Amino acid sequence: EQRDASAIIGTTDVTFLRYGDGELESTREVIGKIVREIRRFKPDIIFCQDPNNRSRHNHRDHRMAGQSTFDAVYPFARDHLHFPEHRAEGLETHKVVEIYTTMADDPDVVIDTSDVIDLKIKATLAHQCQILDPEGMEERIRSRTSETAEKNGYKYAEGFRRHTFNPGRPDSPRT
Predict the structure, then answer these.
(1) What is the pairing mode between strands 45-48 and 109-112?
(2) Over the stretch 145-157, which tens digit does the pLDDT of each residue have?
(3) Nearest Cα to 116, choosing from 124, 126, 127?
(4) How far is 136 from 68, CA to CA, in rounded Å?
(5) How far apart are alpha carbons 93 and 68 in whole angstroms?
(6) Model pTM?
(7) Mean pLDDT across the chain, nearest whole number?
(8) Residue 173: left if φ>0, alpha if ψ -120 to 50, beta else—which one?
């Protein structure tokens, strides 16, 4: 289902860390796997769940994934002392500039998704085992994204909280 969803949005490279539902912990092993992917892809921006969302309880796996990602970004991926075995794979350290966390209550970055809302819905619905009510899911997506959009002059939008690392870096992307 994830490969199907990825194909819908045009992604061809999907990495599975091989943890079952309810099995993810924020351990050094998990962080190391995320660090490997950061060092492999060298992203400037990473999108993930907010492990500290205060207004709504989040799925435990999502919290663990978010916390592990934050820890992987800083300090692990940027420091050569962490996971030195990656060098044998040809992977060097990398400094991620920003993390954008999803489902933000008070977003400081809002992205217009009006042109891709149907694609988002189609990709989400590809996760058939997770969705019991496809029509209800589509309605929830449109409703949630239109609430954020209305506040910002769009038809549909996604809101994120921006967490900045290495703010003095000259090639830091701007929003």
Answers:
(1) unpaired
(2) 888 899 999 999 9
(3) 124
(4) 31
(5) 17
(6) 0.86
(7) 90
(8) beta
